[in-house]
Design a protein that fits this description.
Pfam families: RimK. Keywords: ATP-binding, Nucleotide-binding. This is ATP-grasp domain-containing protein. With 329 residues, this protein is an alpha+beta fold. It folds into 3 domains: 132 residues, Rossmann fold (3-Layer(aba) Sandwich); 103 residues, D-amino Acid Aminotransferase, Chain A, domain 1, CATH 3.30.470.20; 61 residues, Dna Ligase, domain 1. The strands form 4 sheets. A 5-stranded antiparallel sheet has the order 14-13-12-15-16, sandwiched between helices. Strands 2-1-6-7 form a 4-stranded parallel sheet, covered by helices on one side. Helix 2 crosses helix 9. The longest helix has 22 residues.
């Protein structure tokens, strides 16, 4: 799929582009997938301010030859024609090499504001790297170890009792599994399958809790924050690979104002990772709040449209500020 330019959007999109005005910027939005609600909403907020916006995917990033050598391109156009690129790119285990290579191309474009560059993106996508960086910044995270064998898993169960296994690179709860009743035959088979699939896993103690908090931070301010009402079998916000026949995943999402403590944790975690904006997942335990994850591509597309407009506009503000640092609008 090639990038969607302004003329196409004027002709085909329900989100109408406005003609660029004096002092406008050229913005590229690298979306997670075609039609992603958050990217479309941010684009609309930026066009309402008179900015020119191109939506594109990882497959649209390439290299072109010029008299001066090789240059990065976006949908066939030299990347330095853009003022800023906002990256909401998906980096997963299945596309790691290709995604990192293409993001590296863009991140090395002189004069292009990249939100955020490849190094910042990658160290957040990797949960091992993320947890280490948060620890170094004095932010409380779960005790974490890497496991490669069933013997490693058994040692973790002996130490913590109830555990969670997950891949270091993953999203939406896929292959995130809890083990709360020891390691019977079924549990061993499940753990062994995960080890075969990934080779190495993150292992953490399971914290019994009701409710997961997502603190959305944009710039250095908390934006829309949510609480996922998790409990019982629906113990994580998203079911991951799907549900068994007849199963249900009843998790209600509540929009709420964060406490001062939650807002501070979210801001500190976002700053520690060097991100322009992030979704910080926090669980309240008996010993206090614990940061479970920092999401480099936070989502809010499941929220009501009027609520979605709040982060859309806040990200537009952020992009304008960062672009202005390089070139006055």
């Amino acid at each position: 799929m090639r990038g969607i330019d302004e003329m196409e959007l004027r002709e085909t999109s329900p989100i109408r582009a406005l003609l660029p005005v004096e002092g406008s910027m050229r913005l590229g939005i690298l979306w997670w997938e075609p039609g992603e609600v958050e990217s479309l909403g941010i684009a609309e907020a930026c066009r309402e301010r008179g900015h020119e916006v191109t939506l594109f995917g990882l497959e649209d990033i390439g290299a072109g030859d010029t008299p001066l050598g090789t240059v990065p391109t976006i949908a066939g156009e030299e990347a330095d024609a853009f003022d800023t690129v906002l990256s909401r790119a998906h980096i997963g285990a299945e596309n790691w090499r290709d995604a990192v290579e293409r993001l590296s191309l863009l991140s090395d474009t002189p004069g292009l504001a990249m939100l955020d560059p490849v190094g910042t993106h990658v160290r957040t996508v990797s949960k091992f790297a993320m947890l280490h960086r948060l620890t170094r910044s004095g932010i409380r995270v779960p005790p974490t170890r890497s496991v490669r064998t069933m013997a490693d898993v058994e040692q973790a169960v002996d130490r913590w009792g109830r555990i969670v296994l997950k891949p270091s690179v993953g999203f939406r709860g896929i292959d995130v599994e809890r083990f709360t009743h020891g390691l019977g035959l079924g549990e061993r088979a499940k753990a062994a399958s995960l080890l075969d699939r990934y080779g190495v896993l993150i292992c953490q103690p399971y914290y019994p809790h009701e409710g997961d908090h997502r603190v959305l931070v944009i710039g250095e301010e908390p934006s829309v924050c949510t609480r996922f009402h998790t409990s019982g079998d629906a113990w994580k916000p998203f079911p991951g690979d799907g549900l068994p026949p007849g199963g249900s995943w009843d998790v209600r999402i509540e929009v709420r104002d964060p406490s001062r403590e939650m807002a501070d944790i979210g801001i500190r975690a976002t700053k520690a990772m060097g991100l322009s904006y992030a979704g910080v997942d926090v669980v309240e335990t008996e010993d206090g709040p614990v940061v479970m994850e920092v999401n480099v591509v936070p989502g809010w597309g499941a929220l009501p449209p009027d609520v979605q407009r709040v982060p859309n506009r806040a990200v537009a503000d952020l992009v304008e500020r960062r672009t202005r640092e390089l070139r006055p609008l």
